[in-house]
Amino acid sequence: MSHALIRRYFDAFNAGDGAGMLDCVTEDLVHHVNQGETRHGKAAFADFNAGMGTAYREEARDLVIFAGDAPDRFAAEFVIHGTYLATQDGLPEARGQAYVLPIGSFFTLRDGRIARVSTHYNLADWIRQVSA
Hints:
The chain is α+β, with helices and mostly antiparallel strands. The protein has one domain (2-131): Nuclear Transport Factor 2, Chain: A (Roll), CATH 3.10.450. It is built from four helices and six strands, in the order ααββαββββα. It has helices spanning 2-14, 18-22, 42-55, 123-131; strands spanning 25-32, 38-40, 56-67, 73-84, 97-110, 113-121. It has a six-stranded mixed beta sheet. The longest helix has 14 residues, at 42-55. The N and C termini lie far apart (42 Å).
């Protein structure tokens, strides 16, 4: 079930299905964003995803899901293939630039849902790619 939940989360992500992603998380989700503020709750996660959906078009490829010794802890490694669509505050100007970025995400599960997700990538590499 747990691998399937993480896979379902990424399938929804790749389909641009925000409602499908929300269905995978708890009401009190803790979302640690790379180089950003921690968001608390499903509503904050929905707002974040809505903003991301207008600024970026992304697909997670080469997904590998890892299980740890603890039955509620998982990790995923994948490569994002994306297009930068709309300029975000404090970031380079968007001009439809393509990028490819390795990413790692870490999950805590509770009651059949994702209760925590923490995503990490090299922001300097992303900035270099979209600034070229």
